[in-house]
Amino acid sequence: MNLFVIAVLLCHLIICSQQASPLSSCVCELKNSQKPFPYEQLASVNNRVSDCNNNVTPQEIQDLDTLLLGLERRVPQLQADLSMLEKEDDGDLYGVLSLHIIENELIEINQLINRLNSTTMRQQRLSATTSEELQDLKAEMEKMKIYDTLQVVKRQKENQRLKRDLVKCKNGLHPTAPPTEPARGVCPHGPILNVTGPRDHTPGEYPGSYKYGAWGRDPKPEAGKENWYWLVMLTSGNKYSNYVRLYSTLSNMIVGISTPGNVQIHASNPTTNTIQGPNVVLYGNHLYYNCYNEDYVCKFNLTSKTVSKVQLPKGTRYNAKANFCHLDECYPLTDLDLATDESGVWVIYTTTQDFGNLVVSRLDGEVLTINQTWHTTLYKQAVTNTFMACGVLYATRYISKDMEEIFYSFDTATGRERFDIGIKIRKMAANIYSINYSPVDQMLHVYSDSVMTSYEVIFG
Predict the structure, then answer these.
(1) Which of 112, 109, 128 has its CA nearest to residue 64?
(2) pTM, whole model, 2 decimals?
């Protein structure tokens, strides 16, 4: 008996040892706290829509038209036969034959009317059923609206994180050194995944008066001015300006209450050191812009009212020789585009040496010099606008009067170019004349055809 017990125990140990996972294997438990996307529900809606399309066909209308046409032709024929009978009735054989013909025509007309009634009732039932089905489908789609672009993006980020965790889990027993990769500059957010909105939209104090301009927030504001907004409108021929207008809040800008009002650069417009073109930014209480009639970047101190400036490299295109363009239009005096992001102030332009391709330079705001310059392969006049975010240059192009696309990026940390960004921006006006990214609230501030619009930037 003891030997039997020992044999059973040995057998159990052998089986357990065969079932145990080897040390080289790894098991990861995945938990998803989010409600999964209702793919089955979406498939059901698609099937119901397909069935609805199959039921409501042009053949139904065509059958009804055929019956009506037949009835329309039969009734006049019956009237003609009756008139003929009244005129030529001999009370004998001819009258009997005519009455027989008329009787057959009445039977056929009655059959057409019955079929017509049946078809009409069927179409009424089909219309009622289709209406109910559409209401149900609308309710289903309303429920699924919560799974919008942001939710999809969120799932993508979670899936990427899970994939990284799985790779770490698989390689946990045999760790390898991660590949060396340049840092992503000073960006804590990652690349731009999407742009949503418009979030805010206003014609401002002067609706329709100033087609070209720029607006935004100071990424490095003075104390007490954290919520201020600035606005520059090109007041002289849609090309030049000599002041910046300030607002203490966004709501004040929308309703047109400016405090402290205009900060003037010069009494004349245009003249030396005044603003040329719409591509303007405010950073650290200083306004940066293309100096009037020069290939210089001007820096205007809003407190001291003084101007300093730096000349761009030899061969820089200016005075409307390298504008932003699309197929139907070029935007005048957009040769130099000033931009801000988390790291400071940038200028985007082109030179004769670069054959019209975009050049990016980072400015040192303290002494106003060029710190570093990057050269791209993107032709400037194939672009409608640019902006910087987290050390990455983004470029847009015109799709239609209702849509703009962020199609290109250049990472100054890695030198990598991409032409497949594919982020659409829904426009409130046909042409976007300036785009400024605000690192304070991760918003894009757009000025287009005298309309000011803001969009939320979604990073990954």
Answers:
(1) 112
(2) 0.61
